[in-house]
Amino acid sequence: MFDSNKEQQIVKPKSSFATYISEGDRLFLKKNYVKAIDSYSKALTLKPDDKNCLVSRSKCFLDMGDSESALRDAEASLKTDKMFAKGLYQKAEALYNMGEFEFALVFYHRGQKLRPVHQEFRRGIQKAQEAIENSIGSPSSINLDSKEDLSFLQDMGVSTSPPSGAVQPVMMEKMQQSQKTNDNERTEKKLLGEFYSDRKYLKNLLKDEALQTKGNQQDGERLQEVITNSLTFLEMRTLFWHQQRPIYARDRDLKLRQQQWSNLFPSDPAEFLLKSQDEISEALACGNAAGSLKKAKEVIKTVQEWSEKMVPNKKEVLSSMHSCIGDALMDMGDMEKALKHHYKAFEFAQQCDLLDVMSRALDNIGCIYAHTGNFLEAIESWEKKLPLVQFPLEETWLCHEIGRCYFELKLYKEARDYGIRSLAAAKDVADEKWKLNANVLVAQSEKNLKNFESCIAYFESALSHAKTVKDDSAIDAIQKVLDEVEQHLTQ
């Protein structure tokens, strides 16, 4: 058990480019995109044109839903190298998420020609082609006579009447039209969600005669035009969501999530907790740490009033909420309070034997200690997390971080040993970037242990990986150290 009353002081040293990159990668794995973007941005102030860093930040923007910023970073990564595979893929992904499926397809194809063995380009081509086909559809699937769908266009003077040659019994036409309208309404309600009522309000507002006659203006723009543009945007978003992800898939995912919670709680608490968790996560992802903190505290207060019968897994919920509070406080810079809540999250998870939650809590505790310069405590936390690690990639960065802590403490043998473990895990997942990081850690440790021949071998391996990922700053730094070590051997 940890001592949750340990004192620590917050230290904010100015870090190197490699440190900012490593921190950004770790935060990205944790899906803490706001802080990851901050780390990558700091790295880019030191080296503005680093292609890999621009791609990494682009991924964060894309996962946050900011496709335009993601596209800007992706295009910036291609300025000096038009055939940079990672940049091509990221640009294609950004274009796809913006609904520019044809342009995305071009860049997926361009990337596949460059890297024919990479699966992500083939998957990108497939999903872009499917989205294009969904947007075109078959002739029988295109509904051009749904007056409800196009009513706002009709109000603007655009004809939606069927061709004069279309002959059909009146009653059958009305029945089919009614069925199509109902189906469309149900689909659009599912796709638009809370925006459905907003769109309905805007449609009714557009029919307002007073609005049409007065022609109100705001900053030179007619209010009617603003409403029309808003409706057009919602129609385009509906089409995009339908093309990108079929409605049945969205329903399926939602039902799966609800079922997971419903297995633990009665229907009402389950719905409340599911909604609350989404609100907390969304607020934190958008940089609203204060809002996330407030909501998590409200949930804890509510859950504590519920009986064990209503919430059989009460401790699990409390553990999750304390973890959310800890994350919010970390974003707000209050490391001392954040640490206490992550300890509480760990204790509740330990009582319920929730290994995943324990692992996450130990990770957060270790991060706080490392950030505040308490490297021994960080090592203690992360070494307890190691047996709970399930994936090689997680083991890679965890062993690397533990090794770095030992290195800061000048315990170079331990740092080297963890660097070797990190390298082995990186090889398992064939991750060039982490192979680079691990080789550098081992080489630096061997240098301080005076094992110069081994040091040179690991630096040469690191240099090879740096060239593979085209990290110019790492190449320069490694080459400089290599020259120094080789010169030392010749003396």
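Above is the first protein from milestone M3; the second protein from the same milestone is given next.
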Amino acid sequence: MDKKNQLHLLGNQNICYRFDYNPEILETFQNKHVENDYFVKFNCPEFTSLCPITNQPDFASITISYIPDVKMVESKSLKLYLFSFRNHGDFHEDCINIIMKDLIKLMQPRYIEVWGKFTPRGGISIDPYANYGKPGTKYEAMANHRLINHDLNPEKIDNR
């Protein structure tokens, strides 16, 4: 199949921005380096969603890091997918877990982690972290290790 027929969003100038949660917009392409372990990292500093109780906007910087297996997520589709949370009402922790689970379902990566750094509302910020390693592999042990140790060296918070 022609590569242009596999990816419908990349290069498309007539994008319709969806304002409701839409995981179906995500697209993949083949990993050309499946024999290598390597991280792909996305930094998404303009994520927005809605508080499910107050309908007030929540703003976050989302970091997605993964070790691909056969499939990789196409970045424009990821951007549009994250944009689809704009009017989605869910707690911070739910958004992070939904993003991770949707990407696992889409790509079946060897390893993935999603970290949200939400701006404070009411004087407190919430920074949920979720990860996954393919069961029965070294990535499962890696996920456990990173989960236990993910916040031992807190970063300087300068994006709020």
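Note on the second protein: The CA atoms of residues 119 and 125 lie 6 Å apart.
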